[in-house]
Each structure stands twice: as C-alpha cells, then as structure tokens.
Amino acid sequence: MWSLQQQLDKRQADGLYRSRRVTDGPQGPELLVDGRRMLTFCSNDYLGLAADARLADAVKRAVVRYGVGAGAAHLISGHSAAHDALEEELAAFTGRERALLFSTGYMANLGVISALTGRGDSVFGDRRNHASLNDGCLLTRARFRRYPHADVAALRAQLAVARGNALVVSDGVFSMDGDVAPLAELAGVAAEHDAALMIDDAHGIGVLGPRGQGSIAAAGLDAAAVPLLMGTLGKALGTAGAFVAGSQALIETLIQQARPYVYTTAMPPAIAEATRVALRIATDEEWRRERLHGLVQRFRHGARQLGLRLGDSTTPIQPVVLGDTATANRWGAALQRAGILVGTIRPPTVAEGTARLRITLSAAHSAAHVEALLSVLGEIAAGEAA
Ligand SMILES: *Cc1c(COP(=O)(O)O)cnc(C)c1O
Question: What's the order of all strands across the beta sheet hosting 23-24?
Fold first, then answer.
C-alpha cells in the first residue's frame, strides 16, 4: 500500500495538519480544553442554548418517554411523535408547507441535491459554498458548475446555457466569511431562468431576521422566491441535526428519494424534544439576538481600532484575514498561550493567501470576554509589528 505516513508527514511539514482537542464541561465561552480552562470564540452556539437547562430538562423527560435511540430509520419505525411535532413547528417557523428532519446538515445537503437532480440536469454553486453543498453537487450525476463568489452576473451567464432542470445552491451566510449571499438577486436570476433556488441557512437560522427566521426572512423573501430552505439544528438552536423546509411535493419527493434520509437511523427523539424547546426560546427571547449583535459591533469596532483586516460581515462569524498559513498558525498559537481559543482556518478550506482567524461570537459571551480577546489581539499585533 502507498505510504499514508509519508502523506501525513508532508501535511505536518506544510503546517496543514488537523488535530482534535478534548473538551470537558458544559458548552459555553469558558471550556476545559485538554484540561486547561480556555476562553473560546469558535463554537457555533450563537444563542448560548447548547447548555441551557431547559433543553437538558427536555432531554431528560423525553428519555423517560422514548428511551435513548430512535431504533430505526424514519421510514421503518424511527419516526416518533417528537420528530413529527418538531417538523410541524419548523414548517410554521419558516413559513413553509412542510419540513423534514435529517440527522445532520451534511446529510441534508447530500440528500436534497442528489434527490432533485440527476443525469441531464445542471447544478450551480457559489465558489465559497460549504463543503457539504459541494459534496452534494459532486454526488449527483447532474453537471456541476461553480460561479465566482456572490457573482450573480456570472451565474446568469451560466444559467443561460443550462441543460435540463437547473438548481442553484448557496449558503445564506457564508461559513468562513460571515457575509450574506445576495439573496434577492439570486432569487431573481433563478426565476428568470426557471431554476430552483436552495439556500443553506446553517448560520442564519436563529440569528438573523424577525424572530430568528434566518437570512431569507431578513431579506424579505418568501417560499416562492426560495423554494428550498435547509437549516441546521446544531448551531444557533444548540442541539443536533438539520431540516429541509419547502412545499408538500418537495418533502414527499425527499421522503421517496433522498438516500441520506431513507438509509439512516432517525436522530434520537430526545434531541427532537430538546429542539422544540430551543425553537421556542430562539423565537421568544429576542434579547439573545440583540446581545449577540451588540457584541459583534463591539468586536468589530475594537478590531478596526487595532488595524486588523476584518471581513465584510455583520454576522457572528468574524474573520480576521492574516494571509499565509504560517502567520495564521502563529497568531492562533499566541492566542492559545494567552488562554484563548479561536478557529485557525487555512487552505484548502479557504483560498490560498487568505488564511485567517475565524472568530465567532455568542449571546453567551460577555462584553468582558470580548474586551479580553481584543486586548490579546492587540498585544499580538504589536509584537508582530515590532
Ligand atoms: C455546519 C454546516 C453544515 C453541516 O451541518 P451539520 O449539521 O453540522 O452536519 C452545512 N452547511 C453549512 C453552511 C454549515 O455551516
């Protein structure tokens, strides 16, 4: 067999080695990481719900009623009353006819794209789409083309020569840059060419729009403009899994044909019950979004004063673009020595020359947490300049 170790060694030498840390204790800004207490700015727990006691209580009650595992796929005997109720509530929350649960967002994206398109069709995706959308586009037999980031004119030109049914897929909020897709323009160009538009709102649901309904509602668009909405439950909603919302015909088609739906065990019913509670909290507790957006403003203001290169983002995803991999690794390591954990994102996850720190904020952070981060970033910037 070819040498795996040699490939791993090369990855290590290139500064691209990925490794895991072991965390302990309830999810939150202060976490035990490899046994050390760290202040973290890298989780997607935007509303601070992952460790909420009300979600934990819902899990405990549901485990008594349902047990732990779902036992089977949704189409066999795994679709519980908890799953069914959550689907109805997600449909109402997103203003769509139906919603369908998936075990993860990754699987939802694979499932939707491969169920709706096939040989002879065309799929178009933004160059900065999440890996799971790209993988879905590679899995389908349809022709897959990527358009330059947020470039609606380029997409229009590609659609003009599309064959078969055309599907356009985009992140609502881009996961590495935090910017919002040009949703109204995408909906317009999709309608012009009779293409279907699918938005992956993993980072918009719970965070943006009225009552946290996401980036589509924030842009004032409805189900007619964006017939396919995918959202995840493991980010702002603090649990796990994902859903697709849309028309009755769409959901029935997915139930028949989406292989990552059909051939996998349903999420544990207790997770569905906890998500129902999370959805109510996310809808009702507007203060969480207000606090979160206030912290984002505070961070951006402070970072600008330090002369850091921020992205064009008003969302809780705040990239600090540093350039090459070595620089990003150096900043990440310096933050860690100071007890702060942020994402260090390098190629190939982002384009060459745009290695970055990916800082994410949460309603669970305090103003003091953000000040502590800015203070350490300031020290590192001063050290680099010296
Ligand atoms: C996290 C994420 C996913 C995957 O969702 P999981 O439930 O974690 O599998 C899909 N799309 C985007 C944009 C994401 O950020």
Answer: 23-24, 30-33, 36-41, 340-345, 355-360, 317-323
